[in-house]
Amino acid sequence: MANRVTPDAAERFTVLGIDPGLNRTGYAVIDLPDRRVRDAGIVCSTEALSLAERLREIDEGLADVLADHTVDLVAVEDLFAHYKHPRTAILMGHARGVILLAAARRGIEVVSLSATSVKKSLTGNGHAGKAQVQRAIVATLGLSRCPEPPDVADALAVALCAAIGRDGAKHQAGVMT
């Protein structure tokens, strides 16, 4: 019987990055240490439904993603609210709560990342524009084009930031991947 050299299961780590939204929630599943994209897409809710039904749709969509992948870490973008749009922040908070609950139900660790920290980790500039972040995603992951819709690109950015943060923490602890 031949012994095959494969990545140690202990080394493999899967991050689910999420860009929360009530209409569209972007998600991206990335394997570490190779930063391979396993899955990415959006979970949509039906605008004509009640808030409770829309949140149920988000929960069911995330349940499908979590059933398809063994996830070790869920990285969720923090809420950003402009004072002129407090209702938007409240609605986003509902969607984010469903996301956090979906991970907690499954015992998956969750990290929250600010948009500024995501941008800074990928581009070196915490105030980078969407186009600059998208170029960084394409370059870092070796993609042929920018993922669409933008919610997917944002979820990939969140997952990558969590991966970069995890790699940095392991490096500081003396563990190389």
Brief characterization of the structure:
The chain contains 5 helices and 5 strands; from the N terminus they run E-E-E-H-E-H-E-H-H-H.
Number of domains: 1
List segments where confidence is low: pLDDT < 50 over at least 5 consecutive residues: 1-6, 168-177
How far apart the termini lie comes to 28 Å
Order of H and E elements: EEEHEHEHHH
Count of strand segments: 5
CATH superfamily placement = Ribonuclease H-like superfamily/Ribonuclease H
Describe this structure in words.
- With 177 residues, the chain is an alpha/beta fold.
- It has one domain: Nucleotidyltransferase, domain 5, CATH 3.30.420.10.
- Helix content is 46%, strand content 20%.
- It has five helices and five strands.
- The chain has helices spanning 51-68, 86-105, 115-123, 130-141, 150-172, and strands spanning 13-19, 24-32, 36-44, 73-77, 109-113.
- Strands 3-2-1-4-5 form a five-stranded mixed β-sheet.
- Strand 4 (73-77), helix 2 and strand 5 form a beta-alpha-beta unit.
- Helix 1 runs parallel beside helix 2 and helix 3 crosses helix 5 (150-172).
- The longest helix has 23 residues, at 150-172.
- It is globular.
- The chain starts with 12 loop residues before the first strand and ends in a 5-residue tail after the last helix.
- Mean pLDDT is 87; it is low at 1-6 and 168-177.
